[in-house]
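S., here's the first fold you wanted:
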Amino acid sequence: MTRNVGPLERKILTILWQKREATAREICTCLEENDERRAYSTIRTIIKRLVRKKIISQHRHPTNRQYIYTPLITKDELETTIVRKTLSDLLKRFEQSTINYLAEELSDSKEDIEKLKQKLNEMKKDE
């Protein structure tokens, strides 16, 4: 199960995170309000993809039989998963280059270095 999301998937998720739940029609309306006009069938396809990825859930409304969609993960959880997967892939393929790049990027900020040290210390304590 991948947690990577495309731009339109991300826009749909943003709507669901804000509203907590919505129908496909409500999602279309929100996108249109933000000048993101898409065919209803396109939105339904993207929603189905998010359900298959287990990022959102669907259930039928008891009276009008429309599907209602709800996010299964938070924005922070999704972003953390994407960052972990991306870094893990980079480390597997380009271990030394990835480590060198991260070290160079962090060396410009003492605050970032301190945060990293604190995180590493926390991880050592948890072992």
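And the second, which I think is the more interesting of the pair:
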Amino acid sequence: MNPLDTYNGALTRRQFFRKSGSGLGAVALASLLGKPAFANTQDLSSLMAGIPQIAPKAKRAIYISLIGAPSQLDLYDYKPDLSKRFKEDLNQWLKSQGQRLTGMTSGQATFPLAPSIFKFSQHGQSGAWISELLPWTGRMADDICIIKSMHTDAINHEPANQLICTGSMQSGKASMGSWLSYGLGSMNQDLPSFVVLHATHSSPYSNVQAISSRLWGSGFLAGKHAGVALRSLGDPVLFLKDAPGVSRDMRRKMLDGLNQLNQSSYDNVGDPEIQTRMQQYEMAFRMQASVPELTDLSSEPEHIYSLYGEDSKTRGTFANSTLMARRLLERGVRFVQIFHRGWDQHGSLPRDLASQCKDVDQGSFGLIQDLKQRGMLEDTLVIMGGEFGRTIYSQGNLTEKDYGRDHHPRCFSLWMAGGGIKGGQVHGETDEMSYNIVKDPVHVRDLHATILHTLGLDPERLTFKFQGLDQRLIGVEPARVVKELFA
């Protein structure tokens, strides 16, 4: 007896019962709704995944990840009374709070209090206090909701970034964008449902954290749900152009032949990854035509460049990335994640934070205003923030004009806009030290639950069976949808 035949027979038998349930149900549903309802779906699995579990407030999202963790004290969490306590040693007070120390400050003899040197002013109907480093953000205060009561479990960058991007500090989990692709399916046939952009930063001094594809990988989900990174230098995607001497028609015939071989392998073995491979080959072929048109910004009028800022004309900048994100959403991309690194200011914070804020301030303003004027903001969710906060005490030497801050997981700030989020509000409060949360805490898991809910997915029901467990983005610990954020 051929062992392969035995294996294939057993696998086919299991698949028969599974497909009999889901497959016939999908066919029945398609007959009721008609062909137009599924015009953008590419296969049966995406057809079934593309049905929201609850009424969605948004159908797409942009997540702007500020890697390195910006200081909430210097941007959004205004604490004016601390200026009177400049250089006060917090050593004993921190011990009473059970402060976790990183290896970078554990050897300090003193922990001098470092008030922010930046001026704050109130903006919008909510009177939100926003730093002078973010003048453009202040102008859109009525469009955004600032959450000042975020908190996380991790105190170092790698686990904190994995937690906020994948819902777990352990490697191998599916990223947020992959979960959205899996749960909602694709809205287009020519581009991936999840695209990643890496924006450059202008400060030559910034401490740049290394990040890896784990933050946008599909983990245990099918490979087609992984984020596709568009490069800022050279071709946006490697091997985008056909090889010399290979015409478009020849490429199509080669792909058709390869698909026949893969289909034969799938019929014999039944491995779903073979189908994924076939779909990815087809996507790559279509991207050869769609990506050059996507990345050609020559059609954008001058007033759009003025809205996003002059940097939007330079490929790879943050402003250029936000403009590219809008173009991706227009073409049916479900989820765009922009990574902007260099926010890890352990020293020289006033110099480096100012440079980082200048990179992102007008670009993020331009994105929100552009989406709003196109009627897209109401069904597009936008999130911008880092992976944790920064300490009230200084790391290393402290002067009246210079200081650094260490990692602080107990509280940090981010903002959300669009997708049913009520703009012009501030959610949550911290104590007088910007150390502990005293009102309306929002854990990273709560943020994930809220994002899924906004896009029409029940965070409790969005699961995938792997290693004997029902895997979820929100994990197994309690998570709640922060309904107070919605209009």
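Why I say that: The chain has a mean pLDDT of 88. The chain has one domain: 60-237+298-485.

Talk tomorrow,
H.
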